[in-house]
Amino acid sequence: MKQVVQNYKSGELAVLDVPVPGCKPGGVLVRTAYSLISTGTELMKVSEAGMSMLGKARSRPDQVAKVVQSVATNGVPATYRKVMGKLDSYTPLGYSLCGVVEQVGAGIDDVKVGDLVACAGNEHALHAELNWVPKNLYTPVPDGLAPRHAAFGTVGSIALQGVRQGEPQLGEVALVIGLGLIGQLVVQLLAAAGVRVVGADPDPARCELAERLGAEACGDPGSASVEAAVAELTGGHGVDQVYLAAGGGSNQPVELAARLCRDRGRVVDIGKCRLDLPWNAYYEKELDVRFSRSYGPGRYDPEYELEGRDYPIGYVRWTERRNLACFLDLMARGGVDVEPLVSHVADFDDAVETYRSLKDGELKAVAVLFRYPGRAEEAPEAPAVAVPAVNVRRTTAGAAGTPVRVAFVGAGNYATSMLLPHLAGREGVELSTVVTTTALSAANAQRKFGFARATTDLDAVLGDGSVDAVFVVTRHSSHADLTRKALLAGKSVFVEKPLALTEDELAGVLATVEESGNDRLQVGFNRRFAPLLQEAKQRFGARTGPANLRYLVNAGRLEHGSWYLRQGSEGSRFAGEGGHFIDTASWLLDADPVSVYAVATPGNEDLQVVLRYPDGSTATISYVTTGASGFPKETLDLVADGKVLRLDDFVRASVYGRKRWVSSRLPKARDKGQNAELAAFFRAVRTGGPMPVPLESLVATTAATLAVPAGLAGGAPVTLAGHR
CB-based burial of residue 391 (10 Å sphere; 0-12 exposed, 13-18 middle, 19+ buried)? Predict the structure, then answer.
């Protein structure tokens, strides 16, 4: 299928061939009839992409701060790979469309194949021929509403949520500053609610359009006509509400709002304009400044948007989905008319030229629609999705001169910054197929790393006899299930940590090993392969007595919205990455733990995990999120037999004993062992030799990680036994 994309590094726009998205449970696959260009939001993104690197940095200081922190934590090379990987990737455009349901996922019963729906979301309602859309981001289109009008649903919801934040009442007067697409819709919604509206915009054509659509008067923000209209309609008291629907770097809208708003009036920010509030003006009138967050309650909440968990109507009357349905209903009943806003309708194949014309100013438009082949008016019954056939010759891994053929399931940040850079061009490895649930991420990985194929069809890959090894690099909740499927398919499997999130999942993986006889499994516990740590262990030498190991992990706080915070579906943060540190401790102590004891601060944010080993050795892992961001992430001390091994965040290591050894400092990179780990994995796959880490050890580490919650709940050590 085709999709409009942009490379944020170069600014290139393209209509790209990408795999068809899969129809996952909890959503529907929609064939697009019309999609709407947001001439404000999207053109701002297009313009930013055309800036120099310095210009991009100035426009996004929040992202620059993240880069600086990443350099301190991960080093320059890893941060550079990650940043360049993100910049030099195709990103999607679009977030408002109307289309026909082509396939219905499990758990969906409110629509059927052939139904017309309006869809929302900058990850799901894209300028693409097909989109998978979760339940709370689509709604059926009322009978009689044209698909081209229903495509306005998302931007209409944005305007509607902004109006709701202003709490307008019959007979009030409002000022709308900025009469672009959102502003024009706000004007109509206010007029429909019985509010008298004044508009302000420097473009006379937009002012004229707003007056046709319900505004009583409009003019240039700097002219006396706007102030005169406000004074006449309000008796000189000022407007009850001001809606900021403007963009750009001028502070004029904020200052105009203060001047023309009445005492204790409301100012609602809907657009993205400069907000340097003049303190005296806002203080003296005690103005109520409010923000409108996109389409409404539910926005940016993954449980609502992705998992379909609705908010009870008694507590949240207007959610994203209910706003979307409300706006469609208003259009269907004639309360809002979007046809006068349609400046241009372009064929989808002409998308790149359309964006260029808008950016260069050749096309003056309030709203632009893309129309797609086979749209709803012409083809009520959408054609079936075509899946590319797989015709690849099967060759046994290990044959002389034959590369190991690899499939990646998942191509997120870790895969593209920490694993795939070590594999692209590696001798003896062929990147066969990349599988993702979103079409564009598969296409990006194929372009950057040279995969022969990109797809969203996992079953086709697992059934491909030419694939020797499968990498599972997806979100934590899917690791165990995907590992089982790949093992049953006879593949060698490399799964990123964690292997499992529950005891039942771990038992399921072991049952699959027994059933299939396939134990060719490696979990991504890479730190034991780090060259610096391996040399330090060798310098430390053999032990004769028990050891004491202390491992401080200064994990830091996660950003709001991180999927690591979804404990209900993705497990706790320690469950996700604690196996790294347990595996490292067990490797240094040459044994697997026999018991786990855990204590935590209130809220379980900071953990102390004590592991006991067969010879009496102990390892204490302090996993903390409340430390200083400038302190190293990982520091480790191993004490035994009158010797001390110290690791300082994979930058320097030292051993104190009869002789002192200190490594040379590594100022440019922290090598945490990914490259050596991959080399060991492929050597085992190619030769048929033992996997780099025994299965018993992988299971013991996973079981110890899973025992931490039980230890916290019981307040006593948890004995580990009977897993293998």
Answer: exposed
CA dihedral 542, 544, 548, 549 (to 10 degrees): 10
pLDDT at 454 over 70: yes
What SS3 state is found at 141?
coil
Whether a cis peptide bond, with omega within 30° of 0, leads into 388 is no
Superfamily of domain 527-672+691-719: Dihydrodipicolinate Reductase; domain 2 (3.30.360.10)
Secondary element (H or E) of residue 155: helix 153-166
**Do 413 and 424 contact (CB within 8 A), yes or no?**
no
Quote the pTM value. 0.77
Q: What CATH number does the domain located at 155-291 have?
A: 3.40.50.720
**d(Cα 473, Cα 523) in Å, to the nearest integer?**
10
d(CA 446, CA 700): 36
Alpha carbon separation from 317 to 188, 313, 314, 389 (Å, rounded):
22, 5, 6, 47
CATH architecture type of domain 404-523: 3-Layer(aba) Sandwich (3.40)
Residues of the chain with CATH 3.90.180.10: 2-148+334-371
Collapsed DSSP state (helix, strand, coil) of residue 269: strand
Answer for the pair 405, 395: CB distance below 8 angstroms, yes or no.
Answer: yes
358: tokens are 């808008």
| CA pair distance 326, 318, nearest whole angstrom | 9
Token code pair at residue 642: 């009158």
Q: Look over the chain and give the mean of its residue pLDDT values, rounded to a whole number.
A: 89
Cβ distance 245 to 180 under 8 Å?
yes
CATH topology for the 2-148+334-371 domain: Quinone Oxidoreductase; Chain A, domain 1 (3.90.180)
Question: Phi and psi (nearest 5°) for 328?
Answer: -60, -40
pLDDT at 316 over 50: yes
Provide the CA 698 distance to its chain's centre, in angstroms.
29
pLDDT for 385: 30
d(CA 365, CA 358): 8
Q: Is 277 exposed, middle or buried (0-12, 13-18, 19+ CB in 10 A)?
A: middle
Between CA 519 and CA 155 the distance in angstroms is 52
How many residues are given for the chain? Answer: 724
User: What is the pairing mode between strands 288-291 and 272-273?
Assistant: unpaired
Percent of the chain with pLDDT over 90: 77
C-alpha 576/C-alpha 230 separation (Å) is: 58
Residue 342 tokens read as 């349609």
> Which helix or strand (DSSP H or E) is residue 398 part of?
none
* Positions of CATH 3.40.50.720 in the chain: 155-291, 404-523
Task: Reduce the secondary structure of 658-724 to three states and give it as a string.
Answer: CCCEECCCCCCCCCCCHHHHHHHHHHHHHHCCCCCCCHHHHHHHHHHHHHHHHHHHHCCCEECCCCC
Helix or strand run (H / E) with residue 344: strand 342-347
With 0-12 / 13-18 / 19 or more C-beta atoms within 10 angstroms meaning exposed / middle / buried, residue 112 is exposed
What residues does CATH 3.30.360.10 cover in the chain?
527-672+691-719
* 548 bridge partner residues: 618, 639
